[in-house]
Specification:
The chain is α/β, with parallel strands linked by helices and 313 residues long. The chain is built from ten helices and seven strands. The longest helix is centred in the middle third of the chain and has 29 residues.
Amino acid sequence: MKFAWLLPLLIAIPYWWLTPSSLLSSSSSSSLLSLANKTVLITDASGGLGAELARHLASHQANLMLVTRTGRSESLTNKQNVYNKEGKTNSPQSQSQISAYTWNKLVSVRDEALKLGSPKVEILSFDYNNVGEVGMIVEKTVEKFGRLDYLVLNQEEIARGYLVKTRHGQTPDFVSRTFSVNVYSSIELTLKSLPYLEQTQGHILLLSSLLSDISKPGLAVMSATQHATHGFFYSLQRELRERVSGVTLTVGQVGEMEQSEKMSLFEVPGWSVGDRGECARVLVGSLVSRPGTVRYPRLQGVFVRLLGMFGRI
């Protein structure tokens, strides 16, 4: 263990190097001007990082199609503590409260985006469990704007369920719903968008979490969805490069943020926690620079990996 202190460096140096240098500072104003009047479709845009991305893009005069989710939501139910009088969280009454809550937030994001400079903003609600109807989102976008330039896949079901301690994480409905939201809907949205993105030489940004690399008890199903999306989208990325279609794809790995509206996945020290505004700035910059991968915060992943190696997660 004499050289144990070298271990963090051996992990951190390649991790740091693999982060595109163009994203370490603000993209130039001239390059961001290219976003003006372009159409950006953002899923789960009613709050959190999705809403922050909408604000940043609006300030660069992009047109926005903002989508929020309806239907059963494990993460939103637990986060908002919505229950019916019997104490159940999966009732039509409690889920309708969630749908109304997210819709009202989306309306506020739309109004704010218009004030910030977006020429046109449309909003839409959708249940990502209905994978077969996902194409409607793309059709509505093209109908309203006449084109699609950027697809930002931000929908995520943060579903906790221990496989050993409880039966909850073993139910087919739990597994199916989590995969529908996190994997199948993203794949279907991408496939439906590709013909339109090819017309504009557009770009896809997939947002994922550290669970794509690091496992954690109680999050087995969600972790599986993250691995699945990385496998699919990195393969698609290579296909697009080989085809030279003009469409490009970035995989974004986002860690824990300050004042996050989503459930925390990992406990990390304050110095490693990211700023949501800065994260949005980095991700908007990636729409212009189009790297293969972007990570934020950069060193948080290194820290979490070290904890995992010593069994501290």
